[in-house]
Write a structure and sequence with these properties.
single chain; 151 residues; alpha/beta; 6 strands; globular
């Protein structure tokens, strides 16, 4: 994210008030200056241990590992606070939830069936990609299509 594209302060305030983490994607340099909670790295081949050393101590660091259990284990060992895998990797998700303590995020969710299956497995978080430029009704429809009801 270029320096000129700072998050909307009202979004930052809302996240703080509602105890929602505000994470930057692939821009570790912006975390401290923008007061964000952490950074999500979309490529597990980035040197996680080097990033961890450069970030403020209380910064959350998440790493996308796609379909690779090996990449997930390596990211965890290198200091990631959570790992993310593709939603279609239910066998890997089930194994991860049983064998590790590190939180699991499932991303690239496309269907309500995936939401249901991942929820049944007890994954820690679901990463939903929403179009925030769309009208509110469209966002609600996107969530509803995934089987998620708003408050």
């Amino acid at each position: 994210m270029p320096q000129s594209e700072k998050p909307d302060c009202s979004l930052q305030a809302h996240c703080l008030q509602t105890n929602i983490a505000l994470m930057l994607k692939d821009w570790p340099e912006g975390v401290a200056s923008l007061g964000c909670d952490g950074v999500h790295i979309s490529n597990a081949s980035n040197p996680v241990d080097m990033l961890r050393k450069r970030l403020p101590a209380d910064t959350q660091l998440g790493v996308s590992c796609g379909e690779s259990g090996d990449a997930a284990m390596q990211a965890g060992e290198a200091g990631a606070d959570y790992i993310a895998i593709n939603a279609n990797q239910t066998d890997l998700a089930a194994w991860w939830m049983e064998m590790t303590e590190l939180p699991l995020v499932c991303e690239n969710i496309e269907t309500a069936d995936e939401v249901e299956a991942l929820t049944r497995l007890g994954v820690d978080f679901l990463f939903l990609r929403l179009d925030f430029n769309a009208p509110f009704a469209t966002l609600c429809a996107q969530l509803s299509a995934l089987g998620i009801q708003g408050r």
